[in-house]
């Protein structure tokens, strides 16, 4: 019985040792669990803080971005209207340019025609000047002949008068 008792006492002490080890493990696990709970609480607090920060800053930023987007959309619409207006002006200026080019071409043709007519008129004028100078020479010759014949006539008259 002493042997049984000593065996039981050995088993008892082994079990006490096992219990002690298990308690230590339970304490460690308990500490670890409380650490994990603290980390979870801290993570939840961080989540709440970030959520609040997002809701305050993120929503404000989203509203600011939306307002900026609205402004940009308005500016884009204004720019498109201005582009349409400028395109209309460009089209009307192109039409005016084409009209002016056709008028310029017509004027150029008229100018060439006038230059041709002026050259022809100048040529005729030169011919007329030539004819007029020939006629002047003929008139001068005839005037000289007339003067000579009148002089001769006077001489003849004088001589006739003398003879009579």
Automatic annotation (TrEMBL):
Annotated ranges, domain Myosin tail: 8-158
Coiled coil in keyword set: yes
Pfam families: Myosin_tail_1 (PF01576)
UniProt KW keywords: Coiled coil
Gene3D superfamilies (UniProt xref): 1.20.5.340
GO cellular component: myosin complex
Membrane-crossing segments per the record: none
Residues forming coiled coils: 12-96
UniProt cross-references to InterPro entries, sorted A to Z: Myosin_tail (IPR002928)
Protein name per its UniProtKB record: Myosin tail domain-containing protein
Organism: Meganyctiphanes norvegica (Northern krill)
Lineage: Eukaryota, Metazoa, Ecdysozoa, Arthropoda, Crustacea
